[in-house]
Structures are given as structure tokens and as C-alpha cells.
Amino acid sequence: MKLKGQIKIIKFKSKVLENNPLKDPHERDLLVYLPEKYSGHSRGYPTIFLLPSFGNNNYSTVNNNPFSLTIYQILENLIQGNKCGEMIIVIVNCFNKFGGSQYLNSKAIGNYRDYLIKEIVPYINQKYNVSHNALLGKSSGGYGAVTIGMQYPKIFKSIAAHSFDSAFEYCYLPDFPLAFKMLKKEGGPEKWLTNFWNKENKNEKNDIVTLNILSMAAHYSPKESNGDKVGVNLPFDLKTGELNERIWNIWKSQDPINMIKRFKNNLKNVNLLFFDCGMNDEFNLFIGAKVFSERCKTFGINHEYLQYDGGHFNTNFRYATSLSKIYNSITK
Questions:
Q1: Strands 45-51, 105-106: parallel, antiparallel or unpaired by DSSP?
Q2: How confident is the model at residue 64 (pLDDT cuts 50, 70, 90)?
Q3: Where in the chain is the domain with CATH 3.40.50.1820?
Q4: pLDDT of residue 331
Q5: Helix H segments across the chain?
């Protein structure tokens, strides 16, 4: 399916990421989709900032898959079917040596939330004809969309998230024993991470699970990183595996289901709060989504929550729902 719109690749040099502790690249590509009839003289276009999931950068997020459509193709199908209007889509790249982003500021990784809020959004808003900003993401990207959206309602008027990280007891805790064994076997996080990046095959399940837990520690409970020195406070004792309650409580304070009380008034000021999850999600995220919905009801926050028959993976088709909801929330 040939696109009617056009994709711009912008090399953006970040001051925020320039001295990041992992020495990851500070010049990164932005992928910007402009609709077919884009004009700098119209009333402006709703603009979606799409946050990739864990294990992905912007390019892998839109890789062509013979079994599914890209987000660009889905949007153009919606436009053709009069279910949606033209929008701009911006796909950021916050990938790092820990395998992905929760879109937080971290002294172990770098200030990727500032990168998005202070650099990317203002740059796009100035360069293109933007009417409103929206956030969209899945999994870790969904976590970013929900938590950034609840903190910056004046910047983002619509929030949509698919299978976002929440109810940490169910989505992270079950993987602690495996991560503990893997990290202990290698002699700690630094050695494990170095050995991981030296492997030819970086897709073994046990490694991905361990990398995910290590990444969450670098985001939720960071210490200073310095080159090869990994700056994390693990939520378990590396000698015994015993849960570290102090660190675990720091993690839980950043769980959306626990953050909502703090930011409930902000969430009442957005046009759209939409989220969904597959009832067979392999990381049990359907539990967090349901709890988050119930807490929204408790605090009187307007929202839309859907549960569908599916799991965590291969769910690009859900963009058809979120894209149309974002457009209609902004233009109604």
C-alpha cells in the first residue's frame, strides 16, 4: 500500500542528551509523517507523538510487516473511510543501552522526558502547522503517554495508551526471580549488560526478561551511571534474592495506579483519556488497566477503557481505534 502522505526524516541534535551518562547518541532521527494535503496555511493539524515500546526505536516501530499495517497505513485507511481526518505523526527515538525507555528523567540513563517536553515538542510545534498535541504509545510507550499526559495537560490535550505498564506487582514482580538468577550468575548488572551487548543473539527470552527488569531499575530507582558502570538500585538483594522493600516502594510510587491520586485534577482537564488492553496480555497488564479505570471512576475522571480478545504482541490493529478517538477528541 503506497502512502499518500510523506515521511520526513529529521536529524535532531539534542542538547539535553549531549552528555548522557551512557554515552548514547545525542543526535537522533525524528520520523515525521505529514498528510497528503498538508499545508502551512490551514487551521492546523492534530499532532500525535508516538512513543515506541520497550525494545524498539522509531524505525522498528514502523517496520513493514506482511501481516499487519503500519500506523501510517492505518491512518490513511481511516481518512479514506471518513472515520478520521488528517493528522501529523511524530515518532521519537529514546532507545538506549538499557533496551528501551519509560520516558522518565534518570541519572542512570539520561533525561529523556526533558528531551521530549523541552526539545522535541517545541521544535515540532514551531516547524509544522500544529493545532493540538496528543500522546500515543503501547506498553512502555503507553506508560510514557499516560504518565507524561497526566503531568502536562496544558501541552497534551489527548492521551491514548495500549497495554501500558501498570500494577507493577503483576507485570514486573513475577520476573524478579529469573532476573536475580541471571544477574547473579554473571557477577552483577555491569558484567551482565556488557556480555549481553557482546552476544550475537540478543533475542533470547531470558535475556530480554533480565534486560527489562534492569531497565526498569535504571528508570525507577537509578544511581549515577558512568560509561560501563551501571547505575541501578535493584529491587532485590543480589546475594539472596530477597525483595528490597525500600526500593520496591520507590518503584510502586511511579506506578500509574498510584500516581493517579496526585494528578487527578490534571487528568480532568484533558480532552481524551483512552486506554485498552488484551484480556490475555502476557504481562498481566489487563489487571492494571482495569484498576486504573476504577480509580478514574473514583476520582470522577472521564475516560474510555476497552478490553479486547488478544495478548500483548502484534496489536497494531488497535491503532485504528486510538487514532480515530484522538482526532475526534481534538476536533469535536
A1: unpaired
A2: confident
A3: 6-167+257-331
A4: 82
A5: 58-61, 71-80, 112-114, 121-127, 140-151, 168-171, 176-186, 189-198, 205-220, 245-252, 256-259, 264-267, 285-298, 319-331
Please answer whether residues 5 and 80 qualify as being in contact, where contact means their C-beta atoms are separated by less than 8 angstroms: no
According to CATH, what is the number of the domain 6-167+257-331? 3.40.50.1820
Residue with the three cell numbers 497528503: 36
Place of cell 474510555: 304
* Nearby residues of 115 by Cβ (< 8 Å), 6 or more positions away: 14, 16, 17, 94
Q: At what angle are helices 205-220 and 176-186 packed, to 10 degrees?
A: 100
Q: Is the pTM of this model over 0.85?
A: yes
Of the chain, the end-to-end C-alpha distance in Å amounts to 30
Residue 278: its H or E element: strand 272-278
Q: Measured between alpha carbons, how far is residue 200 from residues 196, 197, 203, 215 in Å?
A: 9, 8, 9, 20
- CA–CA distance, 222 with 186 (Å, rounded to integer): 20
